[in-house]
Amino acid sequence: MKAELLTVDMFSDKLGDDFRIEESGMPAIALNLTEISPIRNYANAAREPFSLLFTTQDVGVLPQRTYALRHAALGLQLFFLVPIGEKDGVVTYQAIFN
Predict the structure, then answer these.
(1) Looking at the DSSP assignment, which residues form a beta bridge with residue 17?
(2) For residues 88 and 11, what is the distance between their CA atoms, to the nearest angstrom?
(3) Mean of pLDDT values over 56-85
(4) Would strands 18-21 and 75-87 be described as parallel, antiparallel, or unpaired?
(5) Number of C-beta neighbours around residue 1 at 10 A
(6) At residue 20, does pLDDT exceed 50?
(7) How many C-beta atoms lie closer than 10 Å to residue 42's C-beta?
(8) What would the pLDDT profile of 62-76 be if each residue is shown by its tens digit?
(9) Strand partners, 41
(10) pLDDT > 70: percent of the chain
(11) Pseudo-torsion of CA 71, 72, 73, 78, nearest 10°?
């Protein structure tokens, strides 16, 4: 499955699920899907834009870049993750699909 095919509906039943970063040269890191939000479709794109928020704990802040994330039902997908905040060891990341 390619990233451009992912839709907000594909994530609606995955809230609270863990996604794992699978990158060579680094240990697997669990990210929990904490929020799914539609975004206004200003460009009238074929796919409705949406945002996903993930959290991870006690691993430090990962740099903004594309990561390979695995989910039990979705398989391995590429997500561009942006760290948007850190509090008490919990880091929040956002992925936007537009």
Answers:
(1) none
(2) 27
(3) 95
(4) unpaired
(5) 10
(6) yes
(7) 8
(8) 999 999 999 999 999
(9) none
(10) 96
(11) 20
